[in-house]
């Protein structure tokens, strides 16, 4: 299949001002009539419209039926020869038929529980009708829907409605990927929002009957997001109605279609009995994310899909800031960095590494990655650090003013920062074009009152980029006196060379440096630092991120030593003891400090040090450290467990959620020595899903789960979202030696409806999240996983391809394991009729 390249971009040779779409819905045979008003921009151009899996019924131009020799159709589209096209504006009308009922790929128009639903990003619209399906073609849509359903929705404002018929006009030009249509027997949970200019917007969350009492949290989150975007970015909503629909069968989290966001029901529906604290926080974040796209993505969109991080990086950054403002800022920053390291750093070190703005791809759906999203967000954060708070707001104001209604590039984005700040960002641009995580080495020197930090940066080669150039890195640094007082407040050092040093003068004593505060750049910091100094930072740093980071580093050092059969230094256990009893620290923060690095993270650390990780040894080391901590701090942990019980009715607010997190973290350690006693009691008394699932997970971990799993299943077997948790938790948390066998058994469960993406993901991600289980020496985990990818691929290639990233770390491990994975990947790749999605992924994984 064809590789698409950034440097081959050509503007579309026609202007498309308006499009009228008439849908006659039918599960087997939906008819789509499209009328498109084109104006030629270049003389004698042929007109190419994208189209896949369409049954063409008719085609006419300005009312005249086109003859067979005036156009041609292929598997990828429809071409009308230049000789048949007038030089003036013209209207092209096509009629096609499609079959939503048989669409299992969930791209284009498909059905979920009897309801019609669309997903068009990135290139799904071409499965609905022939059209220039590219983001730089922006048109005004007028849509009519005729169908046997009480609720008929599309983008924009509703202009007419009667039984079985609805008409929608979207006044804002948009690319086809933002088109949406939903039809079904839905019920709305509604509210209103009054915008800053006093317009009232109707808000609706549409769900299946029975789910309407789980929408209030999402509705309130939407109102908070609308308010925040007005206050922080001056952005007002621009239609009279905003609809959100919850769908059970969905390839990703949610989709920002103009005025009609479509959500995976997992990220909308919440009640205390069925959703955890983490679910609540994530729902709020995703509601905000999709809403924020209205300006960063919809009003200003991408010129082509290579620019994806223009809208995704910026929108993730905006949703992260929203959560930081509405919840506990430092805790959110730490959570985001944990996630960045677990997903993006891992991607950057393996065969799938790519720049935030890739310059080639075969299947764009394979590039909705942590690098595009999360690293894209880090880059926006670095820009803000470089130009400052006011400079950032000025740049964003200019971006909205200059580019509203346009399809833009990363160059346009950087130019607004250059123009508004007067800075040269040509070197900074490498963050977008170059792959890989820079390693930043630092050494410290103190003499005659002068403290010097010497930095060296190095980025390892990544696929297709053997040579790396130095990056422009903002390094936020603060200096502490040995008594813990701030000696020099935070200052941003701008590193632009491969090696560079910075000095701090007039220091009567050698300070303790707090480097890369707030994680000011997505780099791997390597610093030769004594455990005592880390313990000091864990106790005293005024920057909460670096305080947590010091503890994490101590834990990581201990685990890396133990995984090699060496004894761990006692520093971590001692330092942690002080922190967990420090009542001035937020419970949520203390909970994070008690969370041990993941087994995958330890494997990465070993690999970074040139060692081959042994998954069993890593698992044993992590268990041993957890047991040590529990023994050393048994009394303090037990006290925390009792003190952090949250009385009264459930609230997902950060305060009580933080208390529950700390309580569960304490229970998690104590679980290693109390025989699962607390977990059992908590499981029986739990009044909300956070406690219930937390306790279940601990029982699974302790191998004392048989009754609890059965009881949980019995209680929740009718609830699809809770059952996903049941599948996932018991695989992620179980002892590694039983993980694959259990996964095999679970695929036989009648509730394992594997064609539903959420259920498939729950089981497979549960297994691959069990590090030592998935990477078991006999290779059973690898074979099982590969078998299921092969099975899913013809049904849903997007999800199969996305799940194949479980193999991205395979080259870290020993030769025997590598041989089994290679074999599994080659087997996938040799499968007859493999999708473009999965074959691109396996080729990259094997390269
Ligand atoms: N912009 C969306 C990305 C997306 C997607 C969503 C649902 C199903 C398939 C999809 N393909 C791409 C989601 C977002 O980033 O907001
Ligand atoms: Zn997004």
From TrEMBL:
Its EC number is 3.4.11.2. It is an enzyme of class 3 (hydrolase). Keywords: Aminopeptidase, Hydrolase, Metal-binding, Metalloprotease, Protease, Zinc. Its cofactor is Zn(2+). One of its GO terms (molecular function) is zinc ion binding. GO terms for biological process: proteolysis. The keyword Ribosomal protein does not apply. Residues 436-527 form the Peptidase M1 alanyl aminopeptidase Ig-like fold domain. The keyword Zinc applies. InterPro entries: Aminopeptidase_N-like_N (IPR045357), Aminopeptidase_N-like_N_sf (IPR042097), PepN_Ig-like_sf (IPR038438), Peptidase_M1 (IPR001930), Peptidase_M1_dom (IPR014782), Peptidase_M1_pepN (IPR012779), Peptidase_M1_pepN_C (IPR024601), Peptidase_M1_pepN_C_sf (IPR037144). It catalyses: Release of an N-terminal amino acid, Xaa-|-Yaa- from a peptide, amide or arylamide. Xaa is preferably Ala, but may be most amino acids including Pro (slow action). When a terminal hydrophobic residue is followed by a prolyl residue, the two may be released as an intact Xaa-Pro dipeptide. Residues 217-431 form the Peptidase M1 membrane alanine aminopeptidase domain. Transmembrane segments: none annotated. Residues 533-846 form the Peptidase M1 alanyl aminopeptidase C-terminal domain. Residues 21-176 form the Aminopeptidase N-like N-terminal domain. Belongs to the peptidase M1 family. This is Aminopeptidase N. It comes from Thioclava pacifica DSM 10166. The lineage of its organism: Bacteria, Pseudomonadati, Pseudomonadota, Alphaproteobacteria, Rhodobacterales.
